[in-house]
């Protein structure tokens, strides 16, 4: 976003015109001849603050402070964006919950019923984001900026495909360790995934009349040595 300094005398914004004194002194005190107009009108730091890096996000909303945590003490290379709307602030708060979940769990495959420690229904929010991008791509919830933030923390937009890919990755690991996909039906991976039951369901999907497995998935499983019909013992 490019901010243009208004012409002297403009009534659009009370802009502090005389900032020379602050730049020369290097102090974090008020900017002469207009610094008083910053309070409550411009959601940007004073030049003295930006130069010293001490209070650069003084007026930024809480969500943006969290997003840029770690910038304290560093000289800003770009102006701080203006205060966001309540709707945007709420979205950023929800995003922080998603970011913390992704850091803890390693993905954003959030169960639909999951509620975070603050009582926020994160699972429902993530499901709504996926639905919005598919059915309402122009929605506020999935603007290009929001999508970029979510992609940065590993958002899986197609949950079914992501879950299948995760299960297949575990099947690959089992095959590498055991040389086959003859997984006992009650077998679980170290992270608690029921791989044996998943392989059983893949065989059932292959055998059913509806052909629930795509040709691509069949090829991937057969490349691992999948046995579609397991001989009965005895």
Overview of this structure, please?
By secondary structure, the chain is mostly helical. It is built from 9 helices and no strands. The protein has helices spanning 20-25, 47-52, 62-67, 86-105, 122-135, 144-152, 159-178, 195-207, 215-223. The protein is elongated, with a radius of gyration of 27 Å. Residues 1-61 and 71-81 have low confidence and may be disordered.
How are the SSEs ordered, and which strands pair?
Layout: H1 20-25, H2 47-52, H3 62-67, H4 86-105, H5 122-135, H6 144-152, H7 159-178, H8 195-207, H9 215-223
Outline of this structure?
It is built from 9 helices and no strands. The protein is mostly helical.
The pLDDT mean sits at 75
Unreliable residue stretches: 1-61, 71-81
- H/I helix tally: 9
The CA-CA distance between the termini, in Å, is: 73 Å
Please indicate the percent range of residues in DSSP E strands (runs of 2 or more): under 5%
Shape field: elongated
Could you spell the SSE succession in H and E letters? HHHHHHHHH
Give the % helix: 40-55%
**Which oligomeric state applies?**
single chain
Number of strands: 0
